[in-house]
Amino acid sequence: LTIMGDAGMEPNISPPDNTSQQDSLFSMMDVFLISLITGLFTYWFFFRKKKEEIPDLPKIQSVAAPVRDSSFIEKMKKTGRNIVVFYGSQTGTAEEFANRLSKDAHRYGLRGMAADPEEYDLSDLSRLSEIDKSLAVFCMATYGEGDPTDNAQDFYDWLQEADTDLSGLRFAVFGLGNKTYEHFNAMGKYVDKRLEELGAQRIFELGLGDDDGNLEEDFITWREQFWPAVCEHFGVEATGEESSIRQYELVVHTDVNMNKVYTGEMGRLKSYENQKPPFDAKNPFLAQVTENRKLNKGGERHLMHLELDISNSKIRYESGDHVAVYPANDSSLVNQIGEILGTDLDTIMSLNNLDEESNKKHPFPCPTSYRTALTYYLDITNPPRTNVLYELAQYATDAGEQERLRKMASSAAEGKALYLSWVVEARRNILAILQDIPSLRPPIDHLCELLPRLQARYYSIASSSKVHPNAIHICAVTVEYETKTGRVNKGVATNWLKNKVPDENRSNSLVPMYVRKSQFRLPFKPSTPVIMIGPGTGIAPFVGFIQERAWLKQQGKEVGETVLYYGCRREHEDYLYREELARFHQEGVLTQLNVAFSRDQAEKVYVQHLLKKNKEHIWKLVNEGNAHIYVCGDARNMARDVQNTFYEIVAEFGNMSQPQAVDYVKKLMTKGRYSLDVWS
Question: Transmembrane ranges (predicted)?
Answer without folding.
Answer: 25-46
